[in-house]
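Kindly go through the entry underneath: sequence plus fold tokens. Please state briefly how this chain folds according to its tokens.
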Amino acid sequence: MSTQPAAQVRSWLTEPLAPDVAQSIERLCRADDVRQVAVMPDVHLANQVCVGVAMATQRLIYPAAVGSDIGCGMAAIGFEADADLLAGERVAARVLAGMCRLIPSIKHPRLAVPTALPASLQVASLSDPRLEKLKDRDGRFQFGTLGRGNHFVELQADQHDRLWLMVHSGSRGMGQAITAHHLKTATEALARDQLVSLDAESPPGQAYLADVAWAIDYARENRLAIVAAVERLLAELFDVAVNGDTLIHSNHNHVRSETHHGQPYWVHRKGALSAAAGEPGVIPGSMGSASFHVIGRGEEAALCSSSHGAGRELSRGEASKKINVKRLERELQGVWFDHRQAAQLRDEAPSAYKDIRAVMRAQRELTKIERELRPLLSYKGV
């Protein structure tokens, strides 16, 4: 049992922490080698370590503080077009149908043809033959797919009615497989309430970090493939193009070496955006609320981090019980989406999430808003 004092913790909150969230954060603060914890305003309960937390260690790596969807993140890019391009139900239906065709939420291996991975992903090897086999199978089949849950493709309008694309997706099944593999191979006898850690300098720690780097690359290339698919679709339907100079691309599930307060640390972010001084980022709201393009302020007390979104107000189970289809449709008035999926999307209703404007106010020290966007069309996998 470590005798080190609990880590320093700072919070930027919209409301007092729920007791179970506070308990989870206190447990994290007392974990071995954890030196600093920063709690974001979108914090909510998750397996072992809350989503919406950044933390720093000196030598130990905690996979649970990265999350299983390694490299999950956001991409945004502007089109050379105005928002009125999407005026009309018939036009929106064509766009949604095209997205469904070009960007499946998941591919079934028995029905689909595997995709060739980008060369950088093919060349880099994973740490175990079983992961390599999975890379060649699931990694190829799921490349270019969106995923389910809170992942989405959204067309939006900025304050000047310019059309923007926003994509939220991750490393698909590969991140989960990598995390499960390394947690299983960490064979130390742990008490029930302890978190699994890996020494960054040990062979297992080095193997995990190398696999994390691969998963982050996979997630980034996957988002770019989705962006390219939407670019092709809108070019085909409307003869419009993107402005490549506007691309903003970041992830919010990672661990990497950074220097803070003059000291080198392993900074873990699970549902937390890197917000170094001058660093661009994307913070989404919900299907029916505003999203934001931001610039980091480099707040050291927050480990140069910010929220990664609005954060859940209701768990998926609670949302499914409390929110019916009529309420979902009422909350999404003015946003095009596939109404045939309304029953399955109840747990993604805007009221299942925290107020994004309250979240942005709570983290004014952490980010500067560059651009506000409103949703026009939302595509989600179910």
